[in-house]
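Posting for a labmate who doesn't have an account.
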Amino acid sequence: CFHLADWDNELVCYKELSEDLTCTWLPVPSAPNTINYTIFLKWDRIPKLFQRNTSSSSIKIERKDLYMKRSASIWIAVNYANGSCMRGKNISVTPSKAGKCLTPSNINAHQITNQLIIKWDRPATPTRYELRYREAFTESTRWTLVPVESNAVNVTILNLNALSSYIVQLRCIVKDGLHCVCIWSKEILVPHKLTNKPRISYNATTEISPGRRSVLLKWEVTQSENVLGYYVDVERIPNSCRDSPNRIFLKDRKVLLNISMAYYRVNISAYNEAGESPQVIYIVPDFSAT
């Protein structure tokens, strides 16, 4: 195999409680879905090379195939349909010293304008962490590593793009003399606040019975990848009883209202973890005006 220099696969292997060895890595960028990987283990002072094939980006090697106290050089090769082969960087692992370190727990992250604020629970024993972040929805964006002060339980990152969403990961840093492997946490998506109001793209009103009509509204949004759902507030005008508008929670970008022939105001907004977008206002005139 040729060495694939630009494939930083972040190969990591750690021992489970069952004493099986789990290895994970990042897929090859822009690779077809049908790609196959081969993991190789070259044990110290054992000539035979261990290998297994898989189509996923992780594999579990059973205890019976391991030499717990021997060091192994491990690497991943990529097998293409045309018969060519590329390999990533080697790592060295001794299974008996490769237990999984405790990972940070209850990680929470949110964005305020151009700041990213990340918090996590304080561990039972003093632990150092490192954090990294990158822009979301952009495959080519590189990670930025952020040093974390010893025993800290939060980090604030400044001077970010307020219109970008970000992905955050956290992991521990192994202490000298401690035999375990630190694993990056799951990727945490931190969406930016929705700044654009939805746009009404379709409306239709139909009389369905004496004194009643249906109103069908559809809308579009420019930041759909960050949207969790939509709020639709329906209010009769004038609101002489000072009632709160009826709020409808939706996942789809459409609503069918069954209302009277009176005058109504419909406010539509999108929402995500960062808050609510500005509202678009649609006026349903009273029947005498149609």
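Reply:
Got it, the structure tokens are right above this. The longest strand covers residues 199-209.
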